């Protein structure tokens, strides 16, 4: 898995929380010499009659597109004036939000999607599933969730939980890249319950050995707990972590919709940026809900 960060996609509605995510993306782009694409989705609305599917409200859509493009252009101008050499583009699409982002993953070789969030979920969002969780499920590359309350944009203290075995080498490489770009320290945290596989302990020890051999600046601890999400959140506070890098691997997803699985718990319990490592899919895969428009991104969750 390629862990370099060269192309960053930021969905935005130009709200305060999305502007915060843009600032995070800009700072990362400067450190990684990456390109940014600012993306806004304007939904088309259709009416089906005997002649087939027809767009309605075309005049309003056209006016909104002109207005949004002006806002994106003004933002691009302000950012390029502020940061000399910043590579930034703007895009508008009218199809489904996640479909659009996955098209960009393919056509623009996107490595990371940066999304602003409002933080804690309410009961309704917990039951129905937040937009952040929806994107983690369906976007075909790694995702960084940036809380609206985030006020610093460098990653000096990077928390690396070891809780599943998937993609650990790629996660190690990504952690080392980010630590180097930020002159940061990696906190390696092995975390399991008392029934966890021996292979997880061995993987933790192997990662510790690799960090030592590569002369990385790191610390390491191993915790036994049944509530991994809460313990990771508490550990991040104790270590004053400003980034948590997680494998995209849900746990206990079989639970009812009234219960939180690992991903929802960690999103809900943590106030620092969360980077979910996902293998990039570079072929187009149709999504199952082409009419599910969400024009409020970034939004709670």
Condensed summary:
The protein is of the alpha/beta class and 301 residues long.
How is this structure best described in words?
The structure is a single chain. With about 300 residues, this protein is an alpha/beta fold. The protein has a single domain, classed as Rossmann fold. It has nine helices and twelve strands. The chain has a ten-stranded mixed sheet, with helices on both faces. It has a two-stranded antiparallel ribbon with strand order 3-4. Helix 8 runs parallel beside helix 9. The longest helix is centred in the N-terminal third of the chain and has 25 residues. The protein is globular and about 60 Å long. The C terminus is likely disordered.
Structural class comes to alpha/beta
Largest sheet, described in full?
10 strands, mixed
- N-to-C SSE string, H for helix and E for strand: EHEEEHEHEHHEEHEHEHEHE
- Gap from first CA to last CA: 28 Å
Indicate the proportion of strand residues: 15-25%
Count of helices? 9
| CATH structural architecture | 3-Layer(aba) Sandwich
Structurally, how many domains make up the residues? 1
**Annotation, overall tally of beta strands:** 12
């Amino acid at each position: 898995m390629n862990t370099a960060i060269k192309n960053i996609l930021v969905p935005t509605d130009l709200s305060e929380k999305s502007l915060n995510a843009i600032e995070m993306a800009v700072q990362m782009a400067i450190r990684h010499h990456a390109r940014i694409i600012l993306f806004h989705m304007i939904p088309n609305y259709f009416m089906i009659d005997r002649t087939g599917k027809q767009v309605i409200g075309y005049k309003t859509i056209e006016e909104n597109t002109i207005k949004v493009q002006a806002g994106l252009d003004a933002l691009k101008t302000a950012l390029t004036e502020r940061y000399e050499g910043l590579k930034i583009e703007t895009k508008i699409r009218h199809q489904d939000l996640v479909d659009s982002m996955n098209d960009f993953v393919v056509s623009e070789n996107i490595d990371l999607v940066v999304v602003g969030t409002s933080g804690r979920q309410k009961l309704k969002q917990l039951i129905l599933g937040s937009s952040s969780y929806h994107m983690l499920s369906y976007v075909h590359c790694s995702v960084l969730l940036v809380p609206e309350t985030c006020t610093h944009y460098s990653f000096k203290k990077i928390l690396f939980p070891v809780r599943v075995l998937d993609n650990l080498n790629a996660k190690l490489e990504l952690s080392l890249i980010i630590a180097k770009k930020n002159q940061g320290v990696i906190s390696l945290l092995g975390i399991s319950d008392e029934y966890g596989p021996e292979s997880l302990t061995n993987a933790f020890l192997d990662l510790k050995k690799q960090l030592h051999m590569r002369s990385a600046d790191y610390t390491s601890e191993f915790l036994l707990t049944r509530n991994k999400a809460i313990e990771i959140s508490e550990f991040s506070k104790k270590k004053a972590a400003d980034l948590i890098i997680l494998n995209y691997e849900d746990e206990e997803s079989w639970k009812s919709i009234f219960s939180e699985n690992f991903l929802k718990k960690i999103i809900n319990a943590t106030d620092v940026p969360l980077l979910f490592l996902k293998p990039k899919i570079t072929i187009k895969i149709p999504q199952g809900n082409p009419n599910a428009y969400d024009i409020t991104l970034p939004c709670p969750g």
